[in-house]
Automatic annotation (TrEMBL), chains A, B:
Protein name per UniProt: ROK family transcriptional regulator
Family: Belongs to the ROK (NagC/XylR) family.
Protein source organism: Microbacterium aquilitoris
HTH marR-type domain boundaries: 2-43
SUPFAM superfamilies: Actin-like ATPase domain, Winged helix' DNA-binding domain
Gene3D superfamilies (alphabetical): 3.30.420.40, Winged helix-like DNA-binding domain superfamily/Winged helix DNA-binding domain
């Protein structure tokens, strides 16, 4: 019912009874409990012209909060979301170059504490913390296994470490899935959602929502696209094939190619994602300034991405593709200009069914926001209302 | 409730009330209606040791039937299924070489009539007819659009043509999706199903069941895998890439390669799927007899299939892969021997989560059986019970 109140932007008790199928008395009782707990407030009155005016309800954003943490190999982001989904506080920083995971975990914990302190939020109002991390992960045990882009990470029990340090309930989710959760949460379209979220970060991955359900897969590791071959003329890959996304259009190989071609100077001290990210910024700036070499590389990258999205679209016949993540603010314009038409040429169902391609409105915080939405989702669904509204 | 009776193999009224959540009186009323209509019968009595013995119920297979038609470019299959899912009659023949779709539609109608006549089934007991056809299709209009392997077919209104000729309610579904429906229907495993069905026919495609739901996609055209690149050293493809499945390990390119290499004689008059199928039989027989050239080609094919399945597994993190279709009786042994280990090497979640690989128990009729299951599914679900049990 809280989810209905959130999505409706002003349902009355009568409308809630209609949409939930609960009796008027049940709705009234639950609403009273929520009003008493300060989670919902009466927002005003509407009149439909007939009958008596109805009191509309809305969530009180400041009544409960969730924390979202996104551990990208290049960027650590912490957000605090109110129960209405608004971001009330955020912090982002480059992921430490240290290869000892415990140092990075300490940084995560410091950032969480700092954001909480700065926000001034009463800790008793925080219902939980979600972490988005690169896969593969062990969802049930809350362990980050051995992500190819997180050097030195091997079977790190991240969930329990954060839970012990914060005292909060913690869930761990794959980064791309968290991004899809955020997009699903934000979208207010009617009807079942059927989309792929292309996450553009240190690695490229896809979060999936099919028939309105987030696709996690049997072990929570759905969304790996790194070994889709997008360039048969490309570089050899560790998997034994050639021209996989992982060696063709992910940021590191793209920058390495730009350096080989002399488009940008080869001056990075190592392959840490932060330096790669800075080089990406430089490459995009060059292309914007009219540099043909930079422009060609970025166009080739968008062609590769279109080919990967064609594989996903042909397999799943999605209605739309949303793109986002830390790289989006730089490659968004190029991708938006070139990918839709190219994707359509490669789609088997192009004559039957359009696919819309757009950027997320959530910006580069989408992973962290999705991680927090996981907690709010739990809090807003009936089975765990107890988490949100103490029976006392 | 009928679906519960079908799956349970002997629930009593009490157990039906437990599993459906309906009241004992409601269950009793519905069961009485089904008994009166002859759709359900009392199968015996069980005693749990305490309380009075319970009367178990089962479907009467001969009470209602559904027809399933599979139009594969190489093979036309018609089956009749009883409401319990048993195949009571079947017929298969090579798809006519004529390029005029109306000739093929006439053959379909003749086959349907023949199977019905031979089975001796009372036509009033047939609740509908499902058609499985190669994509792309227009599900809503019941039109076969322009499948690459069905020469001459362009926007053929197959559903309405068959409905007009038979007087039956008809649904059209993509072949690979129908195969997944059949597999889902047959499987009696507990828990949500999460699998990919690799259909091996004139073309290769994938039917998907995710979180216990059949994935149809926004336009009913999910399951296209023809342009996944499996061989970067392979032949150029019309899509602009190289080494796509469609030009690497589908039957026609495989046979063409075998002919180029002199493994089998190049004696086919044309590329019709029937001749390709016969050449496949010959190639497999040669490999079985110890011919190294034939063995190498089939091993290469299974390697390519493993690579495509890795793309599907990595994207969706499925629990199992089932393989079947017209080619399965010949390539099954090779694929079963080689694909599981190779797939595991290529899976991102290999350390977290096993994926079982097996052949369907439904044989090469799986598409036709799935098409009939679509009708039985409709008949067995509450919203369309009216279709099955006339209120008179």
């Amino acid at each position: 019912m809280l989810d209905q109140i959130r999505r409706s932007h002003g349902h009355s008790r009568v409308e809630l009874a209609d949409t939930t199928g609960l009796s008027a008395q049940t709705v009234s009782n639950i609403v009273q409990r929520l009003l008493d707990a300060g989670i919902v407030e009466e927002a005003g009155r509407t009149s439909s012209g007939r009958g008596k005016p109805r009191t509309t309800l809305r969530l009180v954003g400041s009544s409960r909060y969730a924390i979202g943490v996104h551990l990208d190999p290049g960027l650590i982001t912490v957000v605090v979301l109110g129960i209405d989904g608004d971001v009330v506080s955020r912090h982002a920083r480059a992921t430490p170059t240290a290869q000892d995971p415990s140092d990075t975990v300490d940084v995560l914990i410091q950032d969480i504490e700092m954001v909480l302190t700065e926000s001034g939020i009463d800790r008793t109002r925080i219902v939980g913390l979600g972490i988005a991390a690169p896969g593969p992960i062990d969802v049930h045990r809350g362990i980050v296994l051995d992500p190819p882009n997180l050097a030195g990470w091997h079977r790190v029990p991240l969930r329990d470490a954060i839970a012990a340090a914060t005292g909060l309930p913690v869930v761990l989710e794959k980064d791309v899935t968290a991004a899809a959760v955020a997009e699903k949460w934000t979208d207010e379209a009617d009807g079942a959602q059927n989309f792929a979220f292309l996450y553009l970060g240190t690695g490229l991955g896809v979060g999936l929502v099919i028939g309105d359900e987030v696709v996690r897969g049997g072990s929570g590791n759905a969304g790996e696209i790194g070994h889709i071959v997008v360039d048969p003329d490309g570089l050899p890959c560790a998997c034994g094939l050639r021209g996989c996304i992982a060696v063709s259009c992910a940021p590191l190989p793209l920058i390495e190619e730009a350096e080989r071609r002399g488009v940008i100077p080869a001056e990075r001290p190592d392959d840490h994602p932060t330096g790669v990210d800075a080089a990406m910024t430089r490459l995009v700036a060059l292309a914007d300034a009219g540099d043909d070499g930079a422009d060609e590389l970025l166009r080739r990258c968008s062609e590769h991405v279109a080919r990967a999205l064609a594989v996903v679209s042909n397999l799943l016949d999605v209605d739309r593709i949303v793109m986002g993540g830390p790289l989006w603010d730089r490659v968004g314009q190029m991708f938006t200009d070139t990918i839709p038409a190219r994707l359509d040429e490669l789609r088997a169902a192009r004559g039957v069914h359009p696919v819309t391609v757009s950027g997320t409105v959530l910006g580069s915080d989408v992973g962290a926001i999705g991680a927090a939405c996981l907690i709010l989702d739990e809090a807003l669904t009936p089975r765990t209302t107890s988490l949100l509204v103490p029976s006392a």
